[in-house]
Write a sequence for this structure.
């Protein structure tokens, strides 16, 4: 203990005396149950606060955190969609023939003039 600062010596003594008891406590089933109940209660309180604050913000015509999260998710979805469209466009541009290169002539359809005898529909 010669290397240990004077202020640290009582802390080390308390840790040696209480350490095994605290260790046994935190490894017990009762402690695990208590922590679980505390976490559940905390989550319920947080949910109620979030719902209340969200209602106040909506009454003031302001977005709540859930609104912002939903919009951010939509923006992310749209960004992914735009990226996919860019990839598709790039593939189409690569597959398109070079300007001035050989192209397949467009086929055109011509209509023939109808004569009164050609129409099979009854009149």
């Amino acid at each position: 203990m010669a290397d240990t600062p004077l202020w640290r010596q009582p802390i080390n003594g308390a840790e040696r005396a209480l350490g095994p008891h605290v260790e046994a406590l935190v490894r017990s089933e009762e402690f695990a149950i208590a922590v679980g109940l505390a976490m559940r209660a905390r989550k319920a309180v947080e949910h109620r606060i979030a719902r209340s604050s969200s209602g106040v913000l909506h009454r003031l015509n302001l977005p709540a955190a859930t609104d912002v999260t939903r919009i951010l998710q939509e923006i992310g979805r749209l960004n992914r969609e735009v990226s996919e469209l860019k990839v598709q466009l790039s593939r189409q541009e690569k597959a398109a023939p070079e300007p001035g290169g050989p192209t397949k002539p467009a086929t055109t359809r011509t209509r023939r003039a109808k004569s009164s005898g050609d129409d099979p529909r009854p009149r």
Observations:
- Residues 29-59 form the longest helix (31 residues).
- Residues 4 and 12 are 9 Å apart (CA to CA).
- The two ends are 117 Å apart (CA to CA).
- The chain has a mean pLDDT of 87.
